[in-house]
Write a structure and sequence with these properties.
Rossmann fold; 2 domains; two-stranded antiparallel sheet; 7 strands; binds flavin mononucleotide
Length: 252
């Protein structure tokens, strides 16, 4: 079983996304998988030109010369894809969307009826294979509902490609995962992520118990306390740049 994780955060190894992906892949390796991580922020991947030459002139290959060709070759050989992206405007990062656009050569041009969903159309896979995918995403706000459009997208994406959708590891209020000073505090969380990785390889799913643990708040107090602390952080950080500011409607 080979797992390819894609980190769509421009913050690369410093990102919260990476701080979830690293223990996840560690757990997967402990369960016998081989893993690799593609840091999109380190690669030069130009936007898709929309020319469709990858379908009609150079089948399976993009006409642009950049780092995507090598990644795509490995991407289509992976048994499991882990899409790791920070939540940007309730969606995936631009780096991740750009990457997904550039996987177009892996489809064939034909419009066919989807065998698993009669009456629905899709493109055949140029490299058919049993594949599964997982979504990993941290975000800044403290509520899970911010992820709704992202989850809907990836569920639909997996369905259209005929991949097994293994679920999500979503982390609201996830910024602090990338802060050095909190690493000790979050050992319990990383242990659960590691366990999730092992379960995905051994059982093909994350158990409800582990998933419930992964959804626990990183900090006590609820959204209001979180908002106050975040606002305090932003005013302190602005002050370092000589700016003063406070949230709208706040006296003082
Ligand atoms: C351009 C941009 C858009 C963002 N949009 C959202 C958003 O819609 N909802 C949210 O909760 N956080 C949003 N955030 C915050 C990030 O999701 C959050 O900082 C995340 O932890 C970053 O992960 P990373 O360290 O892996 O890049 C946004 C950040 C940026 C830079």
């Amino acid at each position: 079983m080979h797992v390819m994780a894609i980190n769509g955060s421009p913050r690369k190894e410093k990102s919260s996304t990476y701080h979830i992906l690293a223990p996840l892949l560690e757990g997967m390796r402990a369960a016998g998988a081989t893993t690799e991580i593609v840091q999109l922020g380190h690669l030069q991947i130009k936007p898709c030109l929309g020319c469709f030459l990858c379908w009609v002139k150079t089948p399976g290959k993009c006409v642009q010369q950049d780092d995507m060709a090598a990644v795509l070759e490995r991407f289509v050989q992976a048994d499991m894809l882990v899409f790791g992206t920070p939540l940007y405007h309730y969606n995936m990062s631009g780096l991740m969307k750009n990457f997904i656009d550039r996987t177009l050569p892996s489809c064939e041009p034909w419009l066919v009826e989807d065998p698993k969903h009669p009456g629905k159309s899709g493109h055949p896979d140029r490299y058919p294979r049993d594949r599964a995918m997982l979504l990993v995403s941290p975000c800044g706000f403290p509520e899970f509902d911010h992820f709704a459009p992202l989850v809907q997208y990836f569920q639909f994406f997996a369905q259209k490609l005929g991949w097994r959708y293994l679920g999500e590891i979503l982390r609201p209020a996830g910024d602090s995962l990338s802060e050095e000073k909190f690493q000790e505090t979050f050992v319990w969380y990383y242990n659960l992520v590691r366990q999730a990785g092992e379960q995905l390889i051994r059982q093909g799913r994350i158990t409800p118990e582990v998933q419930a643990g992964l959804r626990k708040d990183l900090f006590p107090g609820g959204p209001e306390v979180f908002r106050n602390e975040a606002n305090h952080y932003w005013s302190e950080t602005m002050a370092k740049f000589g700016l003063t500011g406070k949230p709208p409607g706040q006296a003082g």
